[in-house]
Design goal:
With 319 residues, the chain is mostly helical. It has one domain: Na+/H+ antiporter like fold (Up-down Bundle). It has helices at residues 2-27, 33-57, 61-64, 67-90, 95-106, 110-122, 127-153, 160-168, 171-188, 196-220, 230-254, 260-269, 276-283, 288-315.
């Protein structure tokens, strides 16, 4: 029991520590809004596209692809989005707020929090599988996010050209597409393999920027007018932190999966709403205040939820 508790805390406490450090540094005025904005931009436009690219080209996809795991997690993501959409319609929430709520319900912070949780739990042993699943889910998240905001701004009438232009201007999607093209080229022409120094440099860069990105998230957490949005906050937290990981894990358990794969899926699916959702809400004219509140509350609530989930899965020897 004690060993299980220690393991669960070892997975989540380092993440909590970086977030708290960000809050403290902001309170001490050692970092400011400009620093957090620039660090978030650095991660969004450089680090995460590099991670997406390297994840796709690092290993032959056929060696690490788990079709059942990918299918289940993508299907659950789409289901969560549809449920959030139906809830918006039932509550007659439209436009700027509806898009923010839908995005927050399914979009996890995989590139920073999710991968950090997996590295804390399993080290680099599962990095290839984690990276590939993260790449697929990131593509799905970005496609859905662009769609919900474009649809909201177009009052439900989405232009294919407008949607494609938004998708192709997203740096994470560009990183995935570039990685896919290079992976295809190296498969067709084995002599064109990526040099090993590329992965050494990109891994070092990502390991250096991930803690800084967590600090930036902690420093940017703001709770604004939480009372006014309390019902929405609790509902979206339920979708993201409870329903999404529960459906994914239960489905995979029913299909016979156990061990590290279950742990990987749980940690990625239970990752809190991505801070980039606030950036996208602001860029696409969504309710930025609501987006910021959702990121702040779900990030903090996620820590005890993930710790409890890891404890339960580890106690029953499922991860």
């Amino acid at each position: 029991m004690l060993a299980t508790l220690q393991f669960s805390l070892s997975v989540t406490l380092p993440i909590f520590g970086w977030l708290v450090l960000g809050l403290l540094l902001r309170q001490l005025r050692l970092i400011n809004t400009l620093w957090t904005s620039r660090m978030s931009s650095l991660v969004f436009y450089v680090s995460l596209p590099l991670l997406m690219f390297s994840s796709v080209v690092r290993f032959p996809i056929s060696d690490i692809l788990q079709p059942a795991v990918v299918s289940v997690t993508v299907a659950v993501t789409l289901l969560i989005w549809l449920l959030a959409r139906q809830l918006n319609r039932y509550r007659k929430v439209e436009g700027r707020q509806a898009a923010v709520i839908e995005q927050a319900a399914f979009r996890g912070n995989l590139g920073i929090v999710g991968i950090s949780l997996c590295l804390n739990a399993y080290g680099s042993e599962l990095l290839a599988q984690v990276s590939l699943l993260m790449a697929v889910l990131t593509l799905v998240y970005n496609l859905l996010s662009v769609y919900v905001f474009v649809a909201a701004n177009a009052s439900g009438k989405v232009s294919v050209g407008q949607l494609l232009s938004r998708i192709l201007s997203n740096p994470l999607i560009l990183g995935l597409l570039a990685g896919g093209l290079v992976a295809l080229a190296t498969t067709l022409f084995p002599a064109l393999q990526m040099p090993q120094w590329w992965f050494v440099v990109t891994d070092y860069w990502i390991q250096w920027t991930l803690p800084l990105a967590l600090i930036a998230i902690g420093a940017s957490l703001g709770f604004g007018t939480m009372r006014r949005h309390w019902q929405v906050l609790s509902e979206v937290a339920g979708f993201k932190l409870l329903l999404m990981p529960l459906l994914s894990v239960v489905t995979l358990l029913a299909l016979g999966w156990r061990g590290e794969t279950i742990g990987m899926v749980f940690l990625l699916c239970a990752s809190p709403t991505a801070a980039v959702s606030y950036v996208m809400a602001k860029a696409y004219g969504g309710d930025a205040e609501l987006a910021a509140n959702l990121v702040a509350v779900i990030t903090l609530v996620s820590l005890p939820c993930i710790s409890l989930g890891v404890f339960i899965l580890k106690f029953w020897s499922l991860m």
